[in-house]
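wait is this the right file?? whatever heres the structure
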């Protein structure tokens, strides 16, 4: 009979510490004594298992992310430690994330809700003359902004191209922007190429953490570059010249403004689905609907052909634009037909 070898206490302790060391090493590559004290920092952008952290000294360093951190995104306030010597371009490790004040998320068909940026307090919903202006897309962003309670500003970029549109198209864009303005959203018309209209937008930036969102190609990165020429955010043209094809902004990126404030560039979001929201939240996201919600004859009114629908009456009496109710229905229809498999399973 083979006697099972027993480890004495000292051996056992060594095995345990070695195991712990291996765990630590696979996580951070550094031993504890190779890391400086814990400091506060800010996430500039996150790339998979690492992120760029802005330290209190104003320097940005690429850091590992500890595995216990489940969610980390541009704008997060973190606790991190600098390494005495960098390894594979990594200069430290992020150990903890502070609680977020706000979080802008984007529903991903397969991955569920994906965070885009944290701790923002102003959202610029950027649209453009080309690619085509779409109130459908703007409304989706507005509903998302209303849901997280952050004041949006609607930006129409590339106004230098407006004359290329037909008179009908120009009238349509102007009427829509006027309507948004009338229901309480601030709207600006700008061109990052000619710089026209930029001053009112820039005036809204100091002291706040702002993000530009919108479809790919509307000129978000170009606007960021015009506002802060020193940052050189990657635009489509730049990357086309470098031969990298469609490789534009892929993650949200934080840029500190010279006079206190932050502007975050975000990647284009092709389709901003809202299926994480309930029908009531989408209704509430239409601020011009609010005075009429709850006044329909039937509690489960779908605001389509239901008799006694207060929203349809409001449209007939021109309190609500017909296209807003149409857009609402298109969002509701897409929610019913395009729900991801997982969301359906979960009910
Ligand atoms: N004519 C015109 N083109 C613009 C303007 N702003 C951006 N663009 C162009 O639109 C394209 C997409 O710009 P980009 O900033 O990469 O868009 P993003 O995907 O929203 O970041 C580029 O070719 C820009 O040069 C503008 O105000 N006027
Ligand atoms: Mg971009
Ligand atoms: Zn109704």
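ok assuming it is, sequence goes like this
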């Amino acid at each position: 009979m083979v006697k099972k070898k027993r480890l004495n206490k000292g051996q056992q302790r060594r095995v345990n510490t070695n195991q712990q060391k291996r765990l630590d090493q696979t996580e951070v590559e550094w031993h504890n004594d190779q890391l400086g004290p814990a400091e506060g920092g800010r996430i500039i952008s996150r790339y998979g298992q690492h992120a760029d952290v802005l330290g209190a000294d104003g320097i940005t360093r690429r850091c590992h992310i500890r595995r216990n951190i489940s969610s980390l995104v541009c704008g997060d306030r973190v606790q991190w430690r600098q390494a005495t010597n960098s390894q594979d371009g990594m200069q430290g490790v992020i150990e903890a994330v502070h609680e977020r004040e706000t979080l802008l998320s984007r529903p991903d068909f397969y991955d569920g809700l994906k965070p885009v940026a944290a701790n923002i307090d102003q959202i610029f919903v950027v649209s453009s003359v080309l690619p085509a202006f779409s109130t459908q897309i703007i409304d989706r962003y507005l509903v998302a902004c209303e849901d997280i309670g952050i004041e949006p500003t609607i930006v129409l970029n590339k106004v230098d191209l407006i004359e290329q549109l037909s008179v009908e198209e120009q009238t349509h864009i102007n009427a829509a922007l006027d309507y948004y303005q009338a229901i309480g959203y601030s709207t600006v018309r700008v061109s990052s190429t000619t710089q026209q209209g930029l001053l009112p937008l820039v005036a809204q930036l100091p002291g706040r953490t702002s993000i530009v969102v919108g479809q790919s190609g509307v000129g978000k990165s170009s606007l960021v570059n015009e506002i802060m020429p020193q940052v050189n955010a990657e635009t489509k043209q730049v990357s086309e010249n470098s031969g990298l094809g469609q490789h534009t902004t892929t993650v949200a990126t934080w840029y500190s403004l010279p006079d206190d404030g932050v502007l975050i560039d975000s990647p284009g979001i092709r389709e901003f689905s809202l299926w994480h929201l309930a029908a009531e939240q989408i209704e509430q996201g239409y601020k011009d609907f609010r005075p009429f919600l709850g006044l329909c004859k039937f509690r489960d009114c779908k605001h389509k052909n239901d008799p006694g629908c207060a929203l349809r009456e409001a449209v007939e009496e021109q309190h609500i634009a017909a296209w807003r109710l149409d857009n609402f229905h298109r969002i509701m229809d897409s929610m019913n037909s395009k729900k991801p498999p997982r969301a359906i399973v979960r009910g």
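Residues 238-247, 342-347 have pLDDT under 50 and may be disordered. so i think its the right one actually
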